[in-house]
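Supplementary Text 2. Reproducibility record for the structural model of the 198-residue chain.

All settings were left at their defaults, and a single model was retained for analysis rather than an ensemble. We include the record here because the model underlies the residue-level annotations in Supplementary Table 4.
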Amino acid sequence: MQSVMNRIKDLYYKLIPYHLRPKNLWYRFKCWAWKRHTTVKPRTLPHTWCDRSYLIPHMIFEILSQFIEKECNPESVIWEHKLPDGKDVRQEMQDLYDWWHQDYLVNFDCFFEEWHTFKQTHCKDAWLPVDNECKLACLAAGGPDEEYFEWVHVWDTLENERTGEKLFDQCRATEVDYTEQLTVNMKRVIDITPYMWT
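Retained model, structure tokens:
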């Protein structure tokens, strides 16, 4: 009887390819329906449109975050891999993870917050005629026209305008600095991808 069962098993394994066997089909269906291992949705972004230049960093760091949280948390895996420069791979991953969650995400939306607050207090936006000639031409044409008007910031004092410009320049410099850090850190994540397996 055992020999007959073994022959049936052998025949089954020979005739039915691995990817069409019931257990494998069930696994593939579960992955498609519930656990989509190849679909990555950044937790840090809403379910709305965003530019690809904004999406790519969030995707890269979401993959790193999922790997650290689900596959190699410090309690379950001890790694002794070293990068070519001698750095510990696990520590490099943790440093990038911490930078993303504790520095970049915390500060990213705050770059221009101080400037916006100051501007709301001391400035109003308005459509103003480009010059007197344009104003007359616009009135003769029968109403406001973008060709003759421009959108400008009207500050309450000259001193506040200068302060606002300085604040804007500082905020812009901070944004540029963080963008450069982001580019460097994305490259660091790419460099450690060969180690992202368990």
